[in-house]
Design brief:
single chain, four-stranded antiparallel beta sheet
Amino acid sequence: MKIKRKKADFKFFKKITSPFHQGFIIVRRVVFFIRQRVEKSIRIQLMANFVICLISSMLVASISATYLARLNRNAIIDYSEGIERIDYSARRIVENLNDYRNEFYDLRIEEERLEAEYPEDAEESSQSADMNLGSNSLAIESENSGTDTSQDGTVDSSVQDSKVNLMGKIESEFKVKFKEYIGEVLNEFSYGMRALIVDLDGDVLYRSENATESKVDIHSIIRNAMNTRIDFQRLGGASEFTSFYPINLNDTRAYIVVSGVPEARIEYNEGQIGFIPIVLGFANFVLLFYFSTQKKMRYIEELADGLLEISKGNLDHRIAGKSEDELGSLANNINFMAEALQTKIEEERAAEMLKNELITNVSHDLRTPLTSIMGYLNLLKDKRYETEEEAYQYLNIAYGKSEKLKDLIQDLFEYAKLTNEGVKLNLSEVHLNSLIDQLTEELVPILDEKQLSFKKDISKEDTIVLADADKMVRVFENLLTNAIRHSSVGTEILVQTSVDEDNVIICVENTGEPISSEYLERIFDRFFKVEKSRTSNSAGSGLGLAISKNIINLHKGSIWAESEGNIVRFYVRLSKFKSMLN
């Protein structure tokens, strides 16, 4: 079984590698390539459609012209071949008689000369002359036709008399045989016709077996023959045609006259067809081109209707891509335009909602401290306090609220600057280890107030990044103050730096209330606060983490938060300075 399978596989391999199969594959690839080119170009489609319609219209015009020509054709009786046959018979009779006369004289003269020179061969020479009487095989040499002269240049009279007698003998013999030959020739070439030899007066000298005339009218024969030669079509269905040629018969001038009814042949002349085939071809072209392009025209109308629907505001409308040519590309571009417009409008709506939310949040966050400031200032203005110490306390509270209001306004201003396009960064080499050490030292007094402490795990490797130092200070200051704000009393805040092949990663970890996964996704949104009450004293402006995210995005880095139980971690990843150079 294995051997058979191998043989079958070999046969199959041989089959697919045969020249015929390879040629088939090449043809199929060429057809596939041409089909792809045609399907992707509407110009080629229109050209091919035009050529097909043109060929079809030409075929219709040709077929209709042929049909109409056959329908209108006229039958004509043609006697030209029959007339040529009669005329050919007359010419052959003349040629044969002339040839016979010349050959007979030449052969008899040669025979008599040989008989005089070689008497013993006279009998053989006579038989040879009789056998070659009708052929062209012998001729008399030119030297024998000359006049015999003696050595002194005088004519031998005896030789001359001998020649005269010889010619007279040959002439009498020729008359007998020539008469017999004339009858044979006339009968041979007058099949179905009448052949005559007449003299100048019209008397019949010789005639074929099927001829009975003894005298003819030469004048009438010449007139009818010439009229018929001028126009073959003048002959009627049973009219007779006569052909005649002059001939010399033994110093007698005569005519060869051959008469007969020529055979007719029917021919057909095509009738006039007019402009009907052209009209039919043009109509075929118009109808075929109209119906063959109707599908494309419907698709163009569908594109126009879809574009009109989108222009009315229905951005959810999509146009089906039904081809791979320019129309299909146009449909895809229209769909892409509608999708882009829809996305842009949704972004504008989201931006409008965010703007409204911003206005609401800002107005709330500004109104709360401003209300407190105005309330305490009214108490001081109306002197509704009992002691100077109480008045001083009101004043400190109003000052603290104004400080908070100032920080909120600064955060709003900085966030607005970062969200605008075209923000320029003052890039320089920043050592993150040194930056974090400096910030943690500055925040030690705040840690002491909340009974917190820093635990630092700083990498020994270089943590140099190309960044804007002021903005990086703002990022890590926000992360550290946020960790201090939300840490439980008596816990540690872990600050850790690590380095991989291309990046520097900073982690700020604190222990406090856990954050749900829902809040983790929104923690970097502006004005988002995890606290239930927005009036909590521990709450910030809600812009610190949003500002930090925008700064990190400007530096092509990433920032994210993780929560595991009551431990919350914030991570920042920035590209190393050396890797950026590479």
